[in-house]
Amino acid sequence: MVTLTEAEESGENVPKGGGTLVYRQRLATRLTHWLWAISLFFMLLSGLQIFMARPDLYIGQQSGFGFDNTVLSIGARQVGGEMRGVTSLFGASFDTTGWLGLVPQGDGLARKAFPGWLTIPGYRDLATGRIVHFFFAWLLVATLFVWLLASAFNGHLRELWPSGRDLKRLPRDVADHLRLRFVHDGRYNVLQKLSYAGVLFVALPLMILTGLTMSPGVVAKFPILLDVFGGRQTARTIHFAVMLALLLFFVVHILMVVLAGPINELRSIVTGWYRTSAEKRP
Amino acid sequence: MTRLALTRRHFLTGATLASTASLAGCFDPLGDRDSSVRNVLETANSLTYRAQRLLLGSDDLAREYAESEIRQPQRPNGSTNPRDADYRDLASRNFADYRLKISGLVETPLELSLDELRAMPSRTQITRHDCVEGWSCIAKWTGVPLAALLRQARVGPTARFVLFECFDTMENGFTGPVKYYESIDLRDALHPQTILAYGLNGETLPVANGAPLRVRVERQLGYKMAKYIRSIVVIDDLSGHGGGNGGYWEDRGYEWFAGI
């Protein structure tokens, strides 16, 4: 990590407010971060478009039409003489009119799993959804590969990987987070490490592998994928579940950026420079 | 089951309706089949095709399942009962007059009756049908390996694709009825699991599932597996057929290579 000691001595760029500006995020980290942000945005909305063609999730190799292996189903049906959006999860049904199954369109309601603002394109178009999804799938995988290579060489991987000492600090770190006490010493705390490592080494690989398990071409070559994930339809269900986990990560990520000081956080992921606070990690 | 149940014909009308007050509506122009941005995104498809062809080799078989995995009838999709007069006529006499024509870049064009096809060595496979919509269904298919027919017809050296022309009319266009058609490359055409199926789950292939003949291309999605096959043409270029993209759904924006 480069500090601005020389600049400080010469009186230039001395940050106000006691902290020191440090070069926190390398170019490779910043670039891949934004490529992921773009890829995941498009993959989420095009993925929901694809899902909308069959808004049901099943467990096993196949979809149960003559038997029941459905775990999630989004649809619309007559309830008491009126059309309602109904979402069923593990057998429990919920009225989701206006949000899922029966959604606003124009001046009325349309029988569609998701409202237009949740999909790319905003109307029903599976073909375009697939084109967008697979383009950004390639971009995401390429970015992950570049990031892994760069981070292995520039030390980013080491500063991200949770150590045994980190894990011992976990309870205290959780308590700090709950009290919204953030230490800005320019290093990742253990919860950060765990969530970033979780996304990069668990969630994204799972997304890629379950996505590939849905490809009839790929599983002809690697049928083991069907066994690992318990069938094509289970893989599709896991793909959807991990999407929800990534969405949760995104929400918490944005929340933490806001709580930790959005200007400083944004500057570091755009320019690389981050202002550390005067206090030191105990 | 090969076809898509959803109507996308009115996507432009839908676009106008749905894009009002839509956050992602700014990406709706991607739905325009001629959009240049869409064309850039589509290049990823050829990357997928090349990657799969490079990695997957030609001999890998799609997984075949046990009898116990057949837990339901094969779900019919797309056309399930063609109204076309010539088809109804053949169907009314149980396809006794049906002749499968194989022509194009072959040395010996063929015309085969169903009985002749049934007399040839057959292949039976229990496989998973994956629809582009996202669902899967396991069924037992029996038929003639397409490779055997192509060997008999002796494919010429310039041949690249096998085109399936079908009986069923999908819609009525300005220039008359638009019939379903599909195409695959020779590599898939010669794959051991690529069969012209006349049997499903131990019975004669029903009309709903594509009688008298439908192709199985087990390493691709359902819309590649044309039903109600009238004739097979061996060609070197897709551009002269239908809308020029190699298939009915391909002409409507779907990828020609449906291995993913």
From TrEMBL, chain A:
Name used for this protein in its record: Cytochrome b/b6 domain-containing protein
Keyword Cell membrane tagged: yes
Lineage: Bacteria, Pseudomonadati, Pseudomonadota, Alphaproteobacteria, Hyphomicrobiales
InterPro entries named among the record's database cross-references: Cyt_b561_bac/Ni-Hgenase (IPR011577), Di-haem_cyt_TM (IPR016174), Hydrogenase_cytochrome (IPR051542)
Residue ranges occupied by any Cytochrome b561 bacterial/Ni-hydrogenase domain in the UniProt entry: 25-272
Annotated transmembrane regions: 34-53, 131-153, 196-219, 240-263
Annotated Pfam families: Ni_hydr_CYTB
GO MF terms held by the record: electron transfer activity; heme binding
GO terms (BP aspect): respiratory electron transport chain
UniProt entry tagged with the keyword Membrane: yes
Family matches, as SUPFAM superfamilies: Transmembrane di-heme cytochromes
From TrEMBL, chain B:
Domain (Oxidoreductase molybdopterin-binding): residue spans on this chain: 95-237
Statement: the UniProt record of this protein carries the keyword Lyase: no
Region of interest (Disordered), ranges: 67-86
SUPFAM superfamilies linked to this entry: Oxidoreductase molybdopterin-binding domain
One Pfam family it belongs to: Oxidored_molyb
Signal sequence bounds: 1-24
Signal found in the keyword field: yes
Keywords for the protein's UniProt record, in alphabetical order: Signal
UniProt-listed InterPro entries: OxRdtase_Mopterin-bd_dom, OxRdtase_Mopterin-bd_sf
Annotated PANTHER family: BLL0505 PROTEIN, PROTEIN-METHIONINE-SULFOXIDE REDUCTASE
Protein name in the entry: Molybdopterin-dependent oxidoreductase
